[in-house]
Amino acid sequence: MTQSRRIFRSLLRNFLQAIPTIFIIVTLGFFMLQLAPGDAADFMAAEAGSATAETMAQLRSAFGLDLPLLSQLGSYYAGLANFSLGHSLRYGMPVSELIMQRLPGTITLMAAAIVLAVSLGLLAGTVMGMRPGRWPDRILSVLSLLFYSVPAFWIGLMLIVFFSIRLGWLPTGGGYTLGAKLSGLDWFVDRARHLALPALSLALYYVAIYARLVRASVIEAKSQDHVRTAIAKGMGRYRLIRVHILRSALGPITAMVGMHVAGILGGAVVIETVFSWPGMGRLAYEAILSREYTVLLGILIVSALLVIAMNAIFDIVQSLLDPRVAVR
């Protein structure tokens, strides 16, 4: 079977597996969200300052919140069958449009965090593995343990204090400079400055994991016969690392990144809240406060699909990096 056919079958299998996964996520998520006190009507009344019992009843009736739970769930499934994620009471717009406004921000943050985590993990792990037991290995090991032990939100707050408040180099939050009409390179630089601290805060935890993984892979690769032969033939250090050592380390890292996609997406909820980043994580936090269960279910569905899609992509990337790993 050709590689392209295997890739197609892998994508088709992931798509078919996504259907029961979404069904289970929606069902469990719906009933778990019902355990929280209050609903969107209660929040709207509290936000308005007061509301009569008749007004509350009208709100619940208008949005189907007074129906039995099974009827509400059946109505939601009927909407999904028509490719509708429902309507947001607070924002007054379809949930799908609301999520699509925030989805690019979350994908950008996740992509930047993954690139940073893999790049810094490869660099630190290679340095540690090439000189095990030496002072670079010891220092980077301590830093890795530190980043692994400290919560991401605390790292984010410390980065704000140091780089934003003390040095004034980077903004404290947001996705762009409000009121600035930028274009071209200036627009890109402004977005990159706002993205730097959230992406770094989200990435540092995974840098520690990937650095230790690369260190072990480098030490193992150095003991292999083909690497010893290359060293005996006088191959330069940097070419040796690039051609023989890093190639063997990329496979395990790719597999781990695929496993960590869900964790990175979950961590984005906290980081987006700390940095006021306009993404799905912050939207989920706002939806929890306002008891917008329809919005939360929509975010759950889109998040699950995003995780499934990224895992499928990383499976394919891993098979391309390492021919010994076949796409099934």
From TrEMBL:
User: ABC transmembrane type-1 domain location, by residue?
Assistant: 103-318
Span-the-membrane segments of this chain are 12-33, 107-127, 139-165, 195-214, 249-275, 295-314
Q: Which Gene3D superfamilies match?
A: MetI-like
Domain of life (superkingdom): Bacteria
Q: Which InterPro entries match?
A: BPD_transp_1_N, MetI-like, MetI-like_sf
Provide the membrane topology annotation: Multi-pass membrane protein
Any single Gene Ontology cellular-component annotation:
plasma membrane
Q: What family does the entry list?
A: Belongs to the binding-protein-dependent transport system permease family.
Read off the PANTHER family from this record.
ABC TRANSPORTER PERMEASE PROTEIN, DIPEPTIDE TRANSPORT SYSTEM PERMEASE PROTEIN DPPB-RELATED
Instruction: State the protein's name.
Output: ABC transporter permease
Q: List the source organism.
A: Devosia epidermidihirudinis
